[in-house]
Amino acid sequence: MELRIQHLSKLYSNGVQALNDINLTIPAGMFGLLGPNGAGKSTLMRTLATLQDADSGTALLDNINIHEQKDQIRRLLGYLPQDFGLYPKVSAYDLLDHFAVLKGLDNRKQRKEVVEALLHQTNLYNVKNKHLGGFSGGMRQRFGIAQALLGDPKLIIVDEPTAGLDPEERVRFHNLLADIGTEKIVILSTHIVEDVADLCNNMAVINKGQVILTGQPLSLIAQI
Ligand code: ADP
Ligand code: ADP
């Protein structure tokens, strides 16, 4: 499994060139996309998640084209946006179960197994009946990962997931991502160097819509 991003560009109607000829090859494993606020990370994440079209260029997940084969990509995709809403008066179990139904898990018994396994995996099983409105930032982000993992996606995109987490929650969140497995592609966008240094096998630095550096965190971070 490999994601190849080719000549991706996006000019917003306000004149901002958010993506300026992005080229990246992303193998399986944890990939860090590091860049300051306004670099174009969210625009790139939304484009890869098929929620927004680029003006030109494309990306291929193996041979599936993100612009031309959106349905196929969506079946293989888990996406945790930067700001996602949760229903405050619904329990973690019920909301995850609801999303599982939307993902097409029609069999009740099978759905229960999947939902409970994800709650265990994200360390939320003991709070599964609590309302999401009472969750801390870290619990919310872990819930977001549980939701993103529904349907066993092969490409997982997480946009600035550790912003606002305290150090303990950040470590917990890192451990969760590290466990997701190496056969999947996990793209983590962040402005926090430690996220990439601690977690990622490969990385790119982007600024002003352009890729400035690509390589492995250990050698690259020494250059920043
Ligand atoms: P496009 O060029 O893709 O049509 P638009 O410039 O029309 O995009 O903006 C799409 C949406 O994003 C609009 O609702 C707009 O209000 C909002 N938006 C505009 N500028 C920004 C910005 N700097 N950051 C985030 N959202 C913005
Ligand atoms: P990052 O995630 O790295 O902070 P973004 O992709 O959110 O970067 O933004 C890149 C640039 O595009 C910024 O200058 C931002 O203000 C602008 N931008 C983002 N979304 C929109 C939009 N919908 N319409 C117009 N400009 C936007």
Automatic annotation (TrEMBL):
Q: Which GO terms describe its molecular function?
A: ATP binding
Q: The organism sits in which domain of life?
A: Bacteria
Alphabetic keyword roster? ATP-binding, Cell membrane, Membrane, Nucleotide-binding, Transport
Presence of keyword Ligase:
no
Q: Does the keyword ATP-binding apply?
A: yes
Q: Where is the ABC transporter domain?
A: 3-224
| Protein family per UniProt | Belongs to the ABC transporter superfamily.
- Any idea what this protein is called? ABC transporter ATP-binding protein
